Structure formats: C-alpha cells, structure tokens
C-alpha cells in the first residue's frame, strides 16, 4: 500500500491573511496581502516630511514676522511664539480624544491635515477664544482623589522641567531674533537666513549623542552601577 508523501496531518496550516483586531477606514477586516507595504510607508514619510518642514519653517520665522510686518515688540512677539508653540504641543491630546471617541483616526487625520493647510494661509488672523462654560460641582470619588494625588506628586518633576522649557523657548524667539543682527554672510553674496541658525542645535545634538553613549555612560556606570549611566530623572 503506497503512502502519501504529503498527508493532510503533516501539512503546515496556512497563515491567516486577516490581521486580528484591525479594520480599515471602512470598518472592514484588514488583509495582509492587500494592505500596507512600502507604498504606504512612502506616503507616511512624505506627509511627515512635508508637515515637519511646514512646522519648523513657521516656527523659525514667526518671531521675525511678528516683529517685522506686524510691528510687535520683541517681548510681545516672543510671548506669542511661545503660546503658539505650547498650543501646538497640546493639540495632539485633543486629536487623540476626538479620534478614539468620535471620528476614528483616519477621518481625524484627514480633517486635521485640511485644517493645517487652511490655517497656514491665515496666520495673520486672530480667532476669538471660546467663552468659559459653567459646570455644576459634584463630590469626587476616591479614585479621582487618588488620581489627583498622583498628579500632584509629579509637580516637582514638572517644576524642574521649566528650566528646560525656558532654554528651549529661546531657540525660536530671541535666538532667531539675535540672528538678524549678526553678520551672516559666508561669501559669494549669500547670507544665511536667521531661522536656519537653529540647525546648529540639531547638529550639536547629533555630535554629542555618540560622546554621551561612548564616554559619559561608561564613566557614570562605574559610580552609579546603572547600565544607563544615570536614571531618567
């Protein structure tokens, strides 16, 4: 009696083509064979490069725009740039809430991108802020009290981070404004734009990262017995 070389019991089961727990923008199951891939990666990278170029282009030149065409003082322009930067940093929290609770991530990204493009054409417009709403008071539960205590324990960390925030704010305000008073000519009739001086910060970070990993961390490990050299705090 001949034996089957490939009995059904010895065959490896086929991998599921459907990605478990994942749906597309239409709510249908996602299949590995027809979704993802490098085409989508290139789209994500291209969109991110365009968004970052737009953001840093605005951030680097905003203080000069406010002090120039709009005629604001350096102090007022620096304050407005810092407010703009902090609001931009907090908006993703709102986007996450809207995406998870109401619209979904695809529609949220699409609408946010459209608003991003439209807002770039109206930087000199001021929108009125919303009026504060009154809410009734109610007693807090024990879990809410514990959450409030946990947040208060983070206050020492937040307060020490203010120093970093103050230093970081200088790069997009007074640092750029000071660049307009410098001799930025490098020959051949070319002047380095003041906003481009911020690139030296990124260059310095790239230069010091290997020094930190190869020199500082091994030396610090000897004293702290911590493989990372020092703790995050």
Gyration radius, in Å:
26 Å
Strand line-up in the sheet with most strands:
1-2
Element order: H for helix, E for strand: EEHHHHHHH
Mass-distribution shape: extended
How many H/I helical runs? Answer: 7
What portion of residues belong to β-strands? under 5%
| Number of E-type strands | 2
| SSE class | mainly alpha
What would the average pLDDT be, to the nearest integer? 76
The biggest sheet amounts to:
2 strands, antiparallel
Commentary on this structure:
The chain has 233 residues and is mainly α. It is 59% helix and 4% strand. The chain has helices at residues 38-67, 74-103, 105-120, 142-153, 155-171, 174-179, 199-224, and strands spanning 18-23, 29-31. Strands 1-2 form a two-stranded antiparallel sheet. Helix 1 (38-67) packs antiparallel against helix 2 and helix 2 runs antiparallel to helix 3 (105-120). The relative contact order is 0.07. Residues 1-14 and 126-133 have low confidence and may be disordered.
Question: Which short descriptors sum up this protein?
Answer:
mainly alpha; 233 residues; disordered N terminus; 2 strands; two-stranded antiparallel ribbon
């Amino acid at each position: 009696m001949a034996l089957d070389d490939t009995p059904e019991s010895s065959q490896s089961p086929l991998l599921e083509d459907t990605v478990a727990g994942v749906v597309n923008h239409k709510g249908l199951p996602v299949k590995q064979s027809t979704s993802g891939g490098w085409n989508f990666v290139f789209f994500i990278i291209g969109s991110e490069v365009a968004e970052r170029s737009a953001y840093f282009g605005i951030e680097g030149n905003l203080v000069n725009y406010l002090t120039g065409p709009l005629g604001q003082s350096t102090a007022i322009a620096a304050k407005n740039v810092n407010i703009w930067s902090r609001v931009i940093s907090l908006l993703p929290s709102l986007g996450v809430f809207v995406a998870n609770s109401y619209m979904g991530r695809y529609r949220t990204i699409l609408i946010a991108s459209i608003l991003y493009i439209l807002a770039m054409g109206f930087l000199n417009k001021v929108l009125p802020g919303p009026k504060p709403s009154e809410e009734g008071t109610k007693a807090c539960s024990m879990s809410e009290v514990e959450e409030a205590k946990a947040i208060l324990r983070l206050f020492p960390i937040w307060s020490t981070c203010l120093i970093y925030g103050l230093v970081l704010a200088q790069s997009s305000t007074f640092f750029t404004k000071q660049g307009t008073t410098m001799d930025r000519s490098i020959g051949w009739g070319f002047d380095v734009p003041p906003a481009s001086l911020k690139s030296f910060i990124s260059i310095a970070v790239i230069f010091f990262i290997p020094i930190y990993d190869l020199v500082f961390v091994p030396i610090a490990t000897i004293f702290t017995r911590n493989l990372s050299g020092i703790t995050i705090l």
